[in-house]
Specification:
heterodimer; A: mainly alpha; MetI-like fold; globular; B: alpha/beta; D-Maltodextrin-Binding Protein, domain 2; 2 domains; five-stranded mixed beta sheet; 16% strand
């Protein structure tokens, strides 16, 4: 149902680009008549992945790269199926998802708190925020050697690095959400003489929610990327570990299988969050116009 | 820009046509560079250990090929064996001397190489953090052990643990590169590490670890390796391969003579590992035993054991013919040419020499 919301939001937005894109989409869809709409969309969505697969097969067939470096897609498919059947891939995936969830909860939660605090209290914003931002702007990889010495190479290191990555997007989005909130909402709340709690619950929170959800999406996608990195450096479990092991064992089909799973899972997480965002804060897209 | 079906199709056609613009040309004339590799060190400069390090240190190849105008390029990647396999598969290397296990894994994965000579053997050291309370090998059960995975230490650990009835699965293995191993030992995150003398003994000198066990002697678990050449290069340049092998055998002989002992330590110390770590590592050892290039019964037994292990661990999925991989004809001829037939004594599978 949220799909309807999405469509109508575009219809209302009616920016020139959307109109052209919509037309192009319809033009292409016309070439596949008598199919239910969603099926056509799925088919269209698969065009690029399949083209990529075809290019890959062609590259393997033509031996552009050594077979040990660019494995046959069929071998990758078999390896993936094998890794799923033996339960290794789902196991590593669960480990990785657990780490991301923990990192997002800790880092994102703290980022949200800090962002709200900076947005609400001017002195904090002036005196504390620049330092926090500067610390966050040192890339996670830059912190790694130091973190490794302090926190060791165990589970703590991974979760702290993911948390650090998730912190900034949520801090910024919460802060921006508060700062760029239309003032008229407060005027309305004041006119209605809402009590403080009701004002926060009914006016302030919903008005910053779209920004926060965007922050969560960003945090998740960055956290997912950094997770793989951390797992590649020091780990005995997780998708990044499986990938590194595939490389060490010189089985690039395992590396490719992991890459595909990382990509699909990362995309699915982002897609699910986007759908949730449209469902929860679909109104904000309409008012954006 | 309007996105229409026509532009979409046009783009698709362009993508489809793209591959045909490629053409692979392979020059068959004399190469202008010969690239060699050996395992890199945890820290320090890119020089090598063992015979390959001596080959570089004495600059035998540079002198040999200078008249031909052929450059010599050396690579000692920190990623050690697995990185060398990748370079071989990418045709970025012609020769390499590296650990038996990645060597076998690379060949098992279909990288077409041939063994020309052995790399010699080297003891494996198990270093433990003094505070970890590990007094015997059996104490390693359940402990955290660090080394670079996919290297020969995989096999070494298995053989060392087998001596006390344990398996690799009985310890927690952490896949760390050299510098990270030091950090992890320092922070107490791992309890033990596996490595060669120059790495572990350097840490002993700085007081970070104690040697729990070493395979000096040698005992099962010592590292071994092969000097290999990429087949496509060997087929196109048989004469160059013979000259490179000749220089390699010369270097092995230099590394096997006791009168050169002090000079050898000086050359190996170029890697940046402390000189004393090599002195301790080689103390009491017969240099000829350590740096023998012979493809004898001992070498073959090691390779066969390595292949069995990699098959069991599914590091290699298709077995291959070891005897076809190891070509000792050229080595035998080279030894005869140089008059070095008696420098090294062939060993039996158990490592003992025939009497």
């Amino acid at each position: 149902m949220s799909d309807v919301t999405f469509k109508s939001s575009i219809a209302i937005a009616e920016t020139p680009f959307d109109r052209v894109a919509d037309k192009g989409l319809q033009g292409l869809l016309a070439s596949a008549p008598r199919l239910p709409g969603w099926l056509g969309k799925v088919a269209l969505g698969l065009v690029v992945p399949f083209a990529l697969l075809a290019l890959w097969s062609y590259a393997v067939h033509q031996e552009w790269l050594a077979e040990q470096i660019l494995p046959d897609p069929r071998l990758v498919y078999e390896t993936t199926a094998d890794l799923i059947a033996t339960g290794q891939l789902p196991g590593e995936l669960l480990v990785s998802l657990g780490r991301v969830a923990a990192g997002l909860a800790v880092g994102g939660g703290l980022g949200l708190l800090f962002g709200l605090a900076f947005g609400l209290f001017r002195p904090l914003d002036i005196y504390v925020a620049p330092t926090v931002r500067a610390i966050c702007l040192v890339p996670s990889l830059g912190w790694l050697p130091f973190f490794m010495l302090v926190f060791g190479i165990g589970e703590a290191l991974k979760i702290i690095l993911i948390a650090k990555t998730c912190f900034l997007p949520l801090m910024v989005s919460a802060y921006e959400g508060i700062r760029s909130r239309p003032r008229k909402y407060d005027d309305v709340a004041r006119a209605l003489e809402l009590p403080w709690l009701a004002r926060v619950r009914l006016v302030v929170w919903p008005s910053i929610l779209p920004a926060i959800l965007t922050g969560v999406r960003q945090a998740l996608s960055r956290g997912w990327k950094v997770l793989i990195l951390v797992e590649m450096i020091s780990s005995a479990a997780g998708l990044g570990y499986l990938m590194m092991w595939g490389r060490k064992a010189f089985q690039l089909d395992v590396v490719f299988a992991t890459m595909i799973v990382i990509g699909i899972v990362g995309w699915a997480l982002d897609y699910a969050l986007t759908r949730f965002q449209h469902r929860a804060t679909g109104w904000s897209f309409k008012t954006a116009a | 820009m309007r996105t229409t079906r026509r532009t979409f199709l046009g783009l698709g056609a362009a993508v489809a046509a793209f591959p045909t613009t490629f053409s692979i040309t392979r020059a068959q004339s004399k190469p202008d560079v010969i690239r060699l590799a050996g395992p890199g060190n945890a820290a320090g400069r890119p020089y090598g250990n063992g015979s390959i390090g001596i080959l570089r240190g004495l600059e035998l190849l540079e002198k040999e090929f200078e008249p031909d105008g052929i450059r010599i390029e050396w690579q000692f990647p920190r990623g050690t064996g697995p990185a060398i396999n990748e370079a071989f598969a990418n045709r970025q290397l012609e020769f390499a001397s590296y650990g038996g296990l990645p060597n076998i894994v690379g060949r098992g994965a279909g990288v077409r190489t041939t063994v020309l000579a052995a790399s010699g053997i080297s003891p494996t050291y198990v270093g433990v953090r003094p505070a970890a309370g590990i007094k015997t090998l059996a104490d390693l059960k359940g402990k955290k052990v660090a080394f670079q995975r996919g290297t020969i230490f995989e096999l070494s650990l298995s053989l060392i643990l087998a001596g006390v009835g344990l398996k690799n699965e009985d310890v927690q293995i952490f896949d760390l590169q050299g510098a990270d191993q030091t950090a992890a030992i320092q922070s107490g995150d791992v309890d033990a590490l596996l490595g060669q003398g120059n790495q572990v003994l350097a840490l002993v000198n700085s007081g970070l670890v104690e040697v729990l066990y070493s395979t000096k002697g040698p005992a099962p678990g010592s590292t071994f390796g092969s000097f290999t050449v990429l087949d496509s290069f060997a087929e196109a340049n048989p004469e160059i391969v013979a000259r490179v092998l000749r220089a390699y055998v010369e270097a092995s002989r230099f590394a096997s003579l006791d009168e050169n002992r002090e000079k050898l330590y000086d050359i190996w110390a170029l890697t940046g590992s402390p000189r004393e770590s090599y002195v301790t590592d080689y103390a009491g050892d017969n240099l000829g035993d350590r740096n023998s290039p012979l493809l004898d019964g001992f070498y073959r037994a090691n390779i066969k054991a390595g292949l069995d292990f990699t098959l069991e661990q599914r590091l290699v999925r298709k077995p291959f013919d070891v005897d076809e991989w190891i070509q000792d004809g050229l080595l035998t001829r080279t030894l005869a040419d140089l008059g070095y037939e008696t420098v090294w004594t062939p060993r039996e599978a158990d490592g003992k020499t025939r009497t």
